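Self-study notes.
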Amino acid sequence: MEGDQRFTQPHQERPTLRGIYFTVLRPSLAEFWGVFFLTFGLYSSSALLEAEKPPQPQPGGDPGGFVGTIAVVFLYIGIYSITRSISGGHLNPIITLIQMGRKATFPLVGVCYLGAHLLGAVLGALSVEAITEVSPASQSLKPFFGTGHAIFGEMIGTAIVILAYLTLANQSKGNTAILGIGFGYAGALLAVHSAASGYLNPVLNFGIAVASGTWTKHYVYWVGTALGGIIATILHGLIFASDDQLWIKSRNYVPERIA
């Protein structure tokens, strides 16, 4: 949430326990529980599918498949709507790193967010392992997609999601932001998920990897989303940002609005 003093600047006064709670702990806890619920919903949908189908060898694991994709989309929309006013609704370490780089999130808060994301994803996935007797499928690249294809898919999908976030979430669009970011995430995820079983959010795959013990080509999910974040940041700064936030400014240029 750009411009919100809770996330962008440290208190000028001597910090108090109350101040630390509202500026650091509370938003970090919101991010933790948001990612926890996302990972739990995604991974538990995989356990449900595994329990319903007969045992047979699978050439490529896909946690949750189409059901998991739909589940994480609806969960994301709901969780973003309830965390956006508390923490900015990052729910993704790539978004947090970008906001730290743009000085839209104070570094201490950003570091706490990153830790909350990793811990929430791991505990969310391990919780599913603890309550089910079925071992959910771990994520892996499809046999007919190469590493380059998977990275490219994660990159383009992540660029769409983060560009929607940067354009809408930082302009106090209210319900428009929730729907715009939610539909952007849904469309991007449905379009590219089949390439790598990724969720355009590396901590979701990280939590699943920890719980399943499968790390084969796990770097795909971090490299692809990081590249997508870079692309989204550049496009936003050059084209899609509001006039006062564009990287290139002209003193004499007054943009003409389309009626």
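Second protein, same conventions, sequence then structure:
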Amino acid sequence: MKVLGKSSPLLSSVRPVLSPESMATVAERRIGAVIGSLVADAAVQPIHWNYNKEKLTALLSTRSDWEFWEPSQNPFYVQKTGKQTCYGDQNFVVLKSLVENSGINSDHLKKSLFEYFGAGTAYDNPIWSGGPKTLPINGCWRNGSIRDFLKNYEEKKQETGSESDEQVDCVLRIIPVAALYAGHPQLLDKVEEVVRLTQNNDVAVAFGLLAARLLEIYILNGPTADAIGQLRAKLTDPKRSSPKQLTFALCFPSRPTWVAV
């Protein structure tokens, strides 16, 4: 994955594609969703995982341009500005596998994830094998769902996804899937398939499906003032595809989930 920065030739070349005025077609919005997610991920990587609200607020008050921050202020890991987070790298691996297979090939994607995040890779930090647990580490951070996935894959389990992880991987990783399958009746089935490869957890799936439904609205229609309203309307349709009680509950937390059938 090429490193992105404010003066990156790659970033400069895609700016015309990403401008709202030029994104008039569905195809351009599919491209914009993928490139935008990768650029945004790289842009915030140096201030990723700052959980202390007071410290983060104080940090951000020192300057107005927060993207591609140098030097890194990441409390968990430090790597070159412009590189992806662990979420962005998952996004990229999924994208690459989709391109190489003209769609989803679960076995290929599992192998690709293992080869990108497993032993001997940039993600193979000594902290994961009993080394010093001094933070921040120098290099990439292997997050929880990926650690569970690697263990399950090495043990040759058929279901490789983490059964407990509910982190935001499920939203970031499905962006290329939603970009490819938006408007296709298999969209939600494909999204669930990809989510469960590393997060075999119903909550993660529900969030992934909700994000895919919302992104599909924007890809197919462009700027949409009432996108949330459209999403809620879809979720109340008893004939909708891939009905999930948890997805319904996330959008309607005050209503009983038995309505979602």
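Instructor comment on the second fold: Residues 8-17, 257-261 have pLDDT under 50 and may be disordered.
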